[in-house]
Amino acid sequence: MCYGKCARCIGHSLVWLAILCIVANILLYFPNGETKYASENHLSRFVWFFSGIVGGGLLMFLPAFVFIGLEEDDCCGCCGHENCGKRCAMFSSVLAALIGIAGSGYCVIVAALGLAEGPQCLDSFGHWNYTFANTDGQYLLDTSTWSQCAEPKHVVEWNVSLFSILLALGGIEFILCLVQVINGVMGGICGYCCFRQQRYDC
């Protein structure tokens, strides 16, 4: 059946997306490749929410491997239970997809908040603060204001790029998991119909 193949395709995609989320989140800890800002706690507070490592990363591996594990393309199910095996497998993938939706949703929300608030940086007065926190994200449209952050160098570009990547990756993960919810429900129903058809044909 095509439902299992679709689920496996989604699963493989989620694995790579999760890896990219983890990498993007880790890079946020090292502006310009330096470690001192993390040790001195001069990073955006939303970096410490681990949205890419946990939400869009590790948490996504569970649904991904569940989807990949749907290897049977017939209607005979698993464990010898012809009447419910395939349906249970597809419906269980729906539960896994809901976990994926929660994880990716968390990633998207935190990334959006990180973009809206902006990075913590050293301003022209020599103070570490959130220079763009009161701009309601308008600083994203006015790149001329980014120079207000003296240190770390290019931290605004660094944060905007990586949080945008997390936002995009989390959004794609969310959509894929939502597709699998529909696919899993349809696969469970149609798998049952297929089994009934097999019985009648016999």
UniProtKB/TrEMBL annotation:
It is a multi-pass membrane protein. Pfam families: L6_membrane. It comes from the Eukaryota. Keywords: Membrane, Transmembrane, Transmembrane helix. It is found in: Membrane. GO terms for cellular component: membrane. The chain crosses the membrane at residues 12-31, 46-70, 91-116, 162-195. Belongs to the L6 tetraspanin family. PANTHER family: TRANSMEMBRANE 4 L6 FAMILY MEMBER 1, TRANSMEMBRANE 4 L6 FAMILY MEMBER 1-RELATED. This is Transmembrane 4 L six family member 1. It comes from Ursus americanus (American black bear). The gene is TM4SF1.
